[in-house]
Specification:
Length: about 500
Amino acid sequence: MGEQSRSSLLTTVLELGQSLASEVPATAEEIANVCDRADEPLRVAIAGKVKAGKSTLLNALVGDELAPTDAGECTKLVTWYQHGLVYKVEAKMKDGRSEPVRFKHDDGAIEVDLEDRELADIQRLMVEWPVKTLKEMTLIDTPGIASLSTEISNRSHSFLAPDDEKSTPSDAVIYLLRHLHATDVSFLHSFQEDEYAQPSPINCVAVLSRADEVAVGRLDAMASASKIARRYGDDPRLRRLVQTVMPVAGLLAQAGTGLRELEYRRLVKLAECPESETEKLLLTADRFTNAETSSGIDEVARRALLDRLGLFGVRLAVHSIRHGDVESTAALATLMRQESGIDQLRRTLVDVFGARRDTLKARSALLAIQRLATEYGTSSQLEGQIERTVAGAHEFTELRILNEIRSGALTLRQEDSADIERMLGGSGTSIGRRLSLPEDSGPEKQKEAIIDAIGRWRERAESPLSSPSLVTASRVAVRSCEGMFAELM
């Protein structure tokens, strides 16, 4: 992304940084890093408890099997996966050095050889890979929280919730959970204590991971998982901490990004067996790998299918092939991705994170500038400019109001809350999303809807019957409408 395509808010924030660097040369290097970060793809961290499926989800999002999904070394370190022109792995050491790391990537995840390096000396691993999806966002795999090793868990805490008043290096977070546990709520709270510094409900999405296991791998597992995800999303404990909760079958999603022809042929053989036989064979994972079958597929091959697709994935594939829903490897792979929930998650990331990219980048940059200004001192004039930017930027005001609605600081009726959240871009920042219009609505239709919305929100803001919370939120909604109208002129 070039400087010409930056939003006015991001440009303003970076100009404040340049002013600070001019006044206080000691900040110049850090300000340069802030500016470089602003032009990078959005940084999205993937966090969750041990064995929540973080690495599997990362692989599915990338579309390539890069992150190890077992207990390898990479899962013990914060590992960045970013776009590069060549295949490269580096260790960023805590003393500031960068050291090239030997690795292998044949048929499976990247195997990293740390040689004689101590984990305690490594700040993070940097993996550069020429994959198109990493041009859009840098994905950061974090060690599992609630690990038996306190040292490993602390790496995730230190990354997402620094205790030195710095902002987290990530711009947004995908948090994986298998059940709504007190540990998850506590961890989410820990990195959302600052309005601007840390992830908030607006840039944090929760994923109900391994969703296909919810209904013991039945064909209706994802439908059941969707109901649970909606219930979690409505839970006040989680609603104030995340934007939404989505079910994803990570293993199925990963398989769908790289289904092999041999795997498809084996699934076809299983589908050609008598239905009564396959029903018994697919009752349990143990029976699938060990029971007799007329398919001609041996135990080793069946175990490999189970490891790649999971029991739900095998059941889905056999059912779809038998009933003629798919007739090729590519068609089955597409079905797997659709059923896994990964495509919907990608769309949500674009709507929630991508649309607010510059605002999230500006927020991260502004926090760094504020910290440096406080640490080194600056002129009262520049200090005032920073304060006015924080208070005056409507994009930040929208985030603040959305966060306050989610947290309960602003108390609104349910119907008002949903309307305000949508208007302020809580479900996407496009004009169509804000106004509940079809995305192909023309400018004239949009203008009519905006004028109607301005009148409605002004009426609420001026009504003596409106609560103070509704008055505050309505005024912000009016300003958002005015901004949309100006955009169309």
